[in-house]
Amino acid sequence: MTQQPPSRGEHLRTALALAASGMPTLPLRAGKVPFGNCSICADNACGGRPNMKTPGPCACPGPCHAWAAATTDPDVISSGPWRRAWLLASAVAYHPGGAGLTVVDLDNADAIAWARETLPATQTVPTTRGEHWLYLGAMQSANAVRPGVDIKSTMAYARWLGPGTGTGTMTALPDVVRLLAVKEPTAVRPAAVTATAPAGRGECRHRTPAYLEGGIAMAEQQITEAASAVHATVYRTFLAVLSTHGRCGCLTDAHVARLFTAAQTKGETARHCTDAWANARTWLGL
User: Fold this and answer.
1) What distance separates the 2 farthest-apart alpha carbons in the chain?
2) Per mean pLDDT, which range of 64-68, 163-167, 202-206 is the poorest?
3) pLDDT tens-place string over residues 112-151
């Protein structure tokens, strides 16, 4: 028997239930996109809510400011303008950052395989093409941080995929996810930092050499498999390695050389590798 899609009334009931749990919610129209600006708010003439990075005084009663209109107020969700939107809605969405959450949106099997090898386990929810990995904690949203991977948190929305569809327990947002959204600085700070492993000054948490070896091998693979945005991939990979292995003294110059070799094989210059390493160390306070 073919499963019937949710009714418009079910969308409204779902939104009210999410709001009651503290999840700011909004309706999506066909194509899984938010409702556009009304005629008064067109082209942001109203000054906007915190929509597209521009806070403003807009008091539009409808859900016409995308993620910035998401609300937990049941009176707003059930109001006339919103009720009319629910009659046209095709899905329910929520604002992860507004609920203190981050969604790692994995669009395909390769992205899922990467996440399973790289990210800490957390609650996962199947999607049409892949999976959502949900972490406790909000951060900057970013699209295409690597092939098939988007991060949805602040100033973004994610589609609600239904209760009882997730598996696992939600865990705290890890640094390895936060670092995916970090862009490389345009200037090296400080230029005097050399491409060597930082001196150890913290307790080693790796326990076995295999943990470090696995991390370096995974970093090499991540750089080698980059199909685009090689500069950004190299910098983010350096950040991830240093954030995990850079403070205890286990990382050696030989490990650094392996990372540089992988980057230069992809066409990076030795100068860019050195600059990216210096920037990563400075950003992490190493």
Assistant:
1) 68
2) 202-206
3) 998 988 888 999 999 999 999 999 999 989 898 888 999 9
Give the span between the Cα atoms of 267 and 45, in whole angstroms: 46
Copy the structure tokens of residue 126.
């199947």
Return d(Cα 133, Cα 259) in angstroms, integer. 28
CA angle centred on 109, ends 108 and 111, rounded to 5°: 70
- Collect all residues with Cβ–Cβ distance below 8 Å to 277 and sequence separation of at least 6: 193, 195, 238, 256, 260
Q: Could you give the CA distance from residue 202 to residue 22 in angstroms, rounded to a whole number? A: 39
Residues facing residue 26 across a β-bridge? 93
- Domains, the chain, ordered by start: 8-91 (no CATH), 97-172 (3.30.2250.10), 209-283 (no CATH)
Query: What is the structure's pLDDT at 241?
Result: 86
Q: Do residues 46 and 40 touch, judged by C-beta distance below 8 A?
A: yes
Calculate mean pLDDT across residues 30-52.
79
Beta strands in 107-216 (DSSP E): 123-126, 131-136, 142-146, 149-152, 158-159, 171-172
Q: Looking at residue 130, what DSSP letter applies?
A: S
